[in-house]
Amino acid sequence: MGGIIIFKDRKIKFGLTVFALMLMMFLAACGGDSNEEDNSNSSDDKNSEETTEGPAIGQKDLTQPYVAWARETVSTHMLAELLEMVGYNVELSQVEAGPMWSSVAEGSADFHTSAWLPATHASYWEEYQGDIVKVKQVLDKAPLALTVPSYMEDVNSIEDLKGNEELGESVDWEIVGIDPGAGIMQNTQQVFEEYGLENWNLTSSSEAAMLAALQSAIENEEPIIVPLWKPHWAFGTMDLKMLEDPQEIYGGDGDQVYTVARKGLKEDAPRAYKVMEQYNENYEMLEEMMPKVHKDGQDPADVVKEFIENNPDKVDEWLKGIPRE
Question: Which residues form the ABC-type glycine betaine transport system substrate-binding domain (predicted)?
Fold first, then answer.
């Protein structure tokens, strides 16, 4: 009896041991599946994060002031449209040059894409550089100069204006300008001083009024002198020449154009700042859009949307790594 009992106890113990081993193997297998599932989920989550990661949107409402100049109208609407594609609400505010700069410096506006430096907006930059940061150079060559129709063959340099009684009387000693706060107007006043053009006067109007006067003079083949710049659609539709500026009052080979922002915008709206850092321009795109807006009278918002639709690769460059909403 006692030997049989011992045999049974061992048999039971053996069975329990086998059961325990099987249970451990089963639990290990389940744990492995669970770990694999967890790893799979973790990998999926990581991949999901990688597809949606990007700069935080931050402050969603932005204000962008601009002056209704040829390039600025197109550029401003383009940047606004790109920012709205990634989740922002952008309010456009059409102003003159002074308020454009001061509003960004004071923080009542967030950014503008119309800083012509180092020459044209030198006075604004000197005044506000403590409160404004350069985000990105968007255009590397933007020349400015006094400009005349090409048929004015005897006028090729600013120096040709000094003491030129025949030319002066033919235009009433007047250079037809744009809005008084524009940097090119300030530079033109400096031109009068540096080149000794005491008899000459600069009249203020608007870009539209100046261009209307230019077009009228060309239609009648009359002399006219205006301050003008590139890129501008007028050079594609009128036969014009820029006068030489030996003293480089207008900046020599040309300014560079920057997007500038108020201090703190990078922290307040990181995604918007990233778009601005990646946005750039070239003459080809501007010369495609400017005439549609300023010559044909199309809505600039529609013009930039058409460009975006027709140039997806360019838009992908501007918005690389940024979620679209």
Answer: 65-309
